[in-house]
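ok so for the tutorial part 2 we go from a plain amino acid sequence to predicted structure tokens. step 1 is just haveing the sequence, like this:
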Amino acid sequence: VQLVESGGGLVRPGDSLRLSCVASGFTFVATPMSWVRQAPGKGPEMIARINAGAGCTNYEDAVKGRFIISRDNAKNMVFLEMNWLKVEDTAMYYCVRGLQTLGDRGQGTQVTVSS
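step 2 — the prediction. this is what the tokens look like for a chain of 115 residues:
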């Protein structure tokens, strides 16, 4: 299993970012995917999930209405569009195989929101 995230960076409050994850080593089209984030000194937090067919998504309350998870099964990719970013969104963001917070994940991409 290999998951490679990208797209993080340093942004200001109110800005947007789009994270990407390329997956390989498993049957992506049949696997639900998630995004998990972890802020310094805190535990991992599941923030978004998408089913294998991309027809069903759900979000943690803190990001609902601001973040959108999507996937492209033809390219083995999952995305997280993040809008109206807040300082409290600062964290390392991980693409996760499956729906468990501690599932297989990549190396992460850092998102820092600061004025």
